[in-house]
Write a structure and sequence with these properties.
The complex is a heterodimer of chains A (211) and B (279). Chain A is α+β, with helices and mostly antiparallel strands and 211 residues long. Chain A is built from 6 helices and 5 strands; from the N terminus they run αααααβββββα. The chains are: A alpha+beta (211), B mainly alpha (279).
């Protein structure tokens, strides 16, 4: 009799236990990933998982692979802020429609550079060192280890709607937003804003055709 | 011996004369800037307000506003821009037409492990440069680590082919050059120079390189300059074969590659000097 009760109740207890674990675990996971470092870390791990997936390395999977990486990047990058920072003083003179167009083109260019940088290395390791948080801004320090060479990558983040998003990153001390600002400045000085947009479009076309 | 002849007869006097002039000008500039910034007071306040922050964090905190705001300071002066742009075009062609194809063939012929080892060995030979610059920056520990690295890698690591110091003894390199040392002394880059073959530099860093060349063993290879040129060529091709794609990606995703490279060089060197100051 005792044995019967045990067998009847065992699955029930197990199920209850599992639900409890999942709930607690899920909560703990959600709670522990509210800080900026955890959010970047998760994003980067997801990108690496896609890049290192052998099934997606087949030539016919190229497009799917790209789309998946871009989806992850979109989930933790704040391109509007980055674009505004890259355009700097020229941003204010733009109409809302011009701004939207610029953000769209700029985001595509940045993704090519960032994903290209990560994709170039195989078998690399990423270490997250620390984060500094001040109010709604944060910096997350990471190291990409490749061939025994340490490449420091720092993510600058801001909090928007309860989420931490990347609005600039520095690779080997070179800030992406600042590098593009000086790059774009040089073009605008000679060819005005219209020239910049033309160049952006033709450059993107060139990159995307070669993929 | 192009290095030696150039060095002894022309570069050395020019080096010290220019160094003196640049330093005299820059130091007075820097003093004025430091005075107006008033860094000292805020540092004390911050460390008092947050005693839990460690030394490393504290330094990063101190750089917070500069790093986080993407203000970036002032772009480097470029009075030689037309000439620099011409050399940039030249190097770009040199890379795509010659260095890249040669590096690709070289990379196919020589196993990656060997190329990695060769890079370590070339790097090991420049240990004297790093030791001296660590000393010039008052970093006894850095100089010590570099000396031990040189000894360990030259012996256990077999002429530096293996980075035994890092792998077995966890001794990471303390990379310092004369350009960084001068930067730490308060010397600004002065202006941008894009050299044919050698690529991006500044007046300060070019002088630094000329100074460092006295500690480069390649400058003292016996025979005529062909041996030094060959060593330089192998080093360059070896290095490119290990970083193929980096230059292409950067240039492809820039709108004015010349301006983008100039800024990347400026930011990279500023970061290294800031890192020098923090270490």
């Amino acid at each position: 009799m005792a044995k019967k009760i045990e067998t009847t109740f065992k699955p029930l207890w197990t199920a209850f236990f599992c639900v409890a674990v999942v709930l607690a675990g899920g909560r703990a996971l959600a709670a522990s990933c509210e800080n900026p470092q955890c959010q970047v870390e998760r994003g980067v791990q997801r990108i690496l998982a896609v890049l290192q997936d052998d099934a997606l390395r087949q030539p016919d999977q190229k497009q799917i692979r790209r789309e998946r990486v871009i989806a992850v990047v979109d989930s933790f990058f704040e391109f509007r802020e980055m674009a505004q920072s890259a355009l700097a003083k020229h941003w204010n003179a733009r109409s809302p429609a011009e701004r939207d167009r610029f953000v769209e083109l700029f985001a595509r260019l940045v993704k090519h550079r960032y994903i290209g940088k990560i994709d170039a290395y195989d078998g690399q390791q990423v270490f997250f060192k620390k984060e500094l948080v001040r109010d709604d801004k944060a910096m997350v320090y990471s190291i990409l280890l490749h061939n025994n060479i340490e490449i420091p990558i720092t993510y600058k983040m801001l909090r928007a709607g309860g989420k931490w998003l990347v609005y600039d990153l520095t690779i080997e001390n070179v800030s992406l937003a600042l590098n593009y600002r000086r790059d774009f400045d040089s073009v605008i000085n000679r060819e005005k804003y219209e020239g910049l947009i033309e160049k952006l479009e033709s450059q993107l076309q060139k990159i995307e055709e070669n993929q | 011996m192009i290095y030696r002849r150039l060095g002894r007869d022309i570069l050395l006097p020019v080096f010290f004369l220019t160094l003196f002039l640049v330093m005299a000008g820059e130091i007075s500039l820097c003093r004025a800037e430091a005075g107006s910034a008033g860094v000292g007071g805020s540092e004390e306040m911050r460390s008092a307000a947050n005693p839990a922050i460690g030394q490393d964090d504290f330094l990063a905190e101190d750089n917070w506003s500069a790093e986080e705001e993407i203000s970036g300071g002032v772009a480097m002066a470029d009075p030689l821009e037309p000439l620099n742009r011409a050399f940039f075009q030249f190097n770009d062609k040199l890379y795509f037409w010659f260095l890249r194809p040669v590096s690709k063939i070289y990379g196919r012929l020589v196993a990656k492990e060997i190329r990695d080892s060769l890079r370590n060995a070339f790097d090991n030979l420049l240990a004297p440069v790093r030791v001296v610059n660590n000393l010039l920056q008052g970093k006894l520990q850095g100089a010590g680590v570099e000396t031990v690295r040189f000894v360990v890698n030259s012996t256990v690591g077999i002429y530096g082919l293996a980075d035994a110091a890092r792998n077995e003894f966890d001794l990471s390199p303390h990379d310092e050059d004369l350009g960084q040392t001068l930067g730490l002394y308060g010397v600004g880059p002065a202006f941008y120079i894009y050299w044919p073959v050698l690529g991006p530099s500044s007046l300060r860093d070019s002088l630094g390189q000329a100074g460092d060349a006295f500690l480069d063993p390649f400058a003292y290879l016996p025979g005529d300059q062909r041996a030094a040129a060959a060593a330089f060529g192998v080093k360059k091709i070896n290095q490119i074969s290990l970083t193929l794609g980096d230059y292409e990606l950067f240039v492809d995703t820039a709108l004015d590659p010349y301006a983008a490279v100039r800024d990347a060089y400026q930011q990279y060197r500023e970061g290294r000097i800031k890192g020098s100051a923090a270490r």
